[in-house]
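Bug #77: duplicate submission created two jobs. Keeping one. Sequence:
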Amino acid sequence: MFRASLANLERYRAARGGDLDEHLGGLLEKAGRVYVDEDGDSTDADGSELDRQDAAVAVLNASTLATQVRVDLATSLEPATPLVVDDIGCEASDLFALLLAADLVADDEVTFACVRLGGWAALGPAIKVSGRIESFLSPELLDGMVADALSDAGTAAKVAGEVLRNVNSYVSEDDWAALKAVAKYADKHAVALDPAVVVRIARVGDGHNDQDVARMLRLLDAASPAAVADHVIETFKHLGGPYNRITNPGDSFEFNFDDIHDRLLRILYSENRISRGYPRIPKRRYSVTVN
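Kept job's structure:
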């Protein structure tokens, strides 16, 4: 009967050019571990200690096995840690999340640079497990995956604060999916955005049928520092009618009468951009004229 020891594992691999094939993988999975605790389990024919790190990496790269099985087998080898991540295949799975949870790899930017090569399927689970992600989070790490990060509660809890404080760095291109995710998260969690960022979101969302006008008005109203007239006008012009008529001198039109419209229109009035508007009762509409 095959004993799933490190010595037998390495002899098998040596006979097959270093590979850990499906047959050997099946034997190891059935055993549930790689044995290193008895005499001869971890030494070669000359009595020299075998490289447990190398064997662990070979096991982790055995893609025919489930990720949890691979990590359990690698852990049973009791290798020196952290393992060298460059030797481990960066795949679209939770492999690195499991490695982080098992303390087999370093929780640092080097590991995560490898993880992101596996896409969101790899990066998302790893962010959730990481205890240090906030210390090395960067625009490069989340490039192209900001919408994913903010749409998942588990990852957003760790990265949203940094992303929303630095939207223009984390979303350097006019990526509507990413900016919409920023808007949705900020609105849902009452996070104040810079008014220039609100203007940018409105501009990029112009023409998209999922631009949420009410949300944009709430974000503009809650912006920090407070929005000025230019911010209000630049946002309005990208929200469709009647808001986009705000750039037409002499034009008169109506808005819904509510607290948010009232506060935003007061900003415009205070800077002489509109004539005083009045609530029209019982229509509950706010009438304004552009100066």
